[in-house]
Amino acid sequence: MNTTERFFKISGTEYERYARAAWQRYINAPSRAEASLAAVADIKVERVLDIGCGAGHELIPFILHRRAWGVGLDVVPETGRAGFELFGTIAPQARVNFVRGAAEALPFRDGHFDVVVCRLALPYMENDRALAEMARVIRRGGALLLKIHHAVYYLRKIANGLSNRDGLSMVHAVRVLLAGSIYYSTNRQPRTRLTGGETFQTRSLLRRKLSPLGMLIESELPDSNSATPSFVIRKSA
């Protein structure tokens, strides 16, 4: 069982339900698609990769409005099942494909994509390997649209756990905060039985990790907030 499957432990039916619900939320919030297009308006976008894709809804604006070829990647066995069906309802001729794989070992050649999207999936990955792989497959001058879980997200989870008397939720949040604190201070992400594999990220931590990869945080997307920041990251030309 791979990283995301270990931490989510969801059945195929649950995964498809989650993917379809996320797709519908995206359709119901057109400002998200508009923000993605605006973030890369100056880039010629022909190939887009969505990591941790669900049904691939993040690919919609690029496929429909930029006529790009889209690839959705996820680790679960059901990858693409809901995505192919849903794209068939809105764009039967869409150039879209789905691949089962892990961000830590992307099955694509160097510089293959103009844009890579990864939203709220990085916390569950081996961050250094995943970020290096994302940078590798983005062409020079291309962009990464990245949304993360900040430490604030888990502090709020503890507060909600106290209010709801949800001990398991609190324990989980404490473990992630411990892992993230170790990662932030030592530059090494712990993945032990005590800490688990999930971690938070911060802007300064990302800057430290991305700079050697030729990647620079350029701006934030409109849906960015203190708990789940959203970044527009560029690869040097």
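That was protein one. Protein two is written in the same sequence-then-structure order:
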Amino acid sequence: MKRKSLFKSLVFVAAVCFYAVAGSAQPSATAAADVKGKVDEFMKARLDVRGYGGTVLVMKEGSPVIAAGYGLADEATKQPNAADTKFRIASVTKQFTAALVLLLQEDGKLNVQDSICKHIDPCGKAWQPVTIHNLLSMTSGIPSFTGLPNWGELRIKDMKPSESVALVIDQPLKAKPGEVFDYSNTNYILLGMLIERLSGKSYEAFLADRITKPLKMTNTGYDHGKERLPNSALGYTRRDGEIARADAASMTIPWSAGGLYSTTGDLFTWQDALLNGRVFKKKETLEAMLTPVKDDYAYGIAVMTDPNGRKRITHNGGIEGFSSDAVYFPTEKVFIAALVNNDRGNASDVLRTLTAIYFGQPYTMPKKRVAVKADPAILDTYVGEYRLAPNFSFKITRDGDGLVVEPTGQPKRPLFAESNTEFFLTVVDAQLKFLKDESGKVTAIEFTQNGRTSKAPRQ
């Protein structure tokens, strides 16, 4: 299941299921070169079509199948992305925060069943029944401050964690604690505050003392955002059809919910250490972290079984200028990570394709799309509402000589014609195809995003 990005949605609509490819045996050692070649071919084609790249890593039983960078870390200086380039990892941060909380439990400083109000002051009146367990598992019901209507204005301000929390401290809970999974960045800011209070150290220092230094993760840490880190990628976006520097957001805000930087190699080091018992003293601590509570979400990480029966441990993230995703298949002992320095890049798209390549399944190569002029007479026949899910639909309307699409809860976006029935978007990798019955009446659209197709009937 796709996890929310930290500050904004990087996908046009939420994906229902990832890595839904037919089962296949993992490639043998002799096939590793073939996997490497196909990954390289895909990433170069993607760079050619999209104009931006990132870094990717595929590991099998601790040995790299491919570790490579594509595109530019810095468009101005033409510094290339490399296998060890640092990227902001956004919500991939959350698993590190969760681990630090569990380390404090092993130290005897807390119990995850404690009320958060035992350790946090001030504490919201409605938060008394909320436990640390609820925060870790996203079942607290506490609203996310990043979901506030004025978040667009707030995100550029340098706010302390307590100031971020204060934005929602007087709001009612969205649900009774423990009943509903609801992704909230407030939860993990509160956990960061708890870590500092009980450890007596800053979040950054405690992370270094207990995780990054012991594991020799020299390319991982907290990105203050005040100056560029050595050997790091700058963040970009696509604006008016061109690649441009992403909007500057305050890095004091994401903090323990999404403020870390890392590399694909360090992310593997972390997963390898975590899953092989080199982070916690007790086996049951790791089991608690990796046990899903609701909607496949455990503590700071998702643990699920895909339609092919493969167990995977994963989390993605998105923040201005960056997209990240990493997955570990424990049975197959395969780790795949993708870090992209463009917030229109959707690292989960890359990860899904690399997964398909590794397991020998079909995937779609990127291609350049060319807009043509559609027959104006036919455009009016497409106007209407197309329902993709019970609470999600596409509204298609005319705009001058073209069409625009308005997904539920999202702004209108222009559609560009490839033919009289096929259209595409430029803000994301998404396409629409209008379907007709035998009489020529428009009955539905096929919506394809990042290679996945769904049907939305006309209402």
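The chain has a mean pLDDT of 91. Keep this in mind for the problem set.
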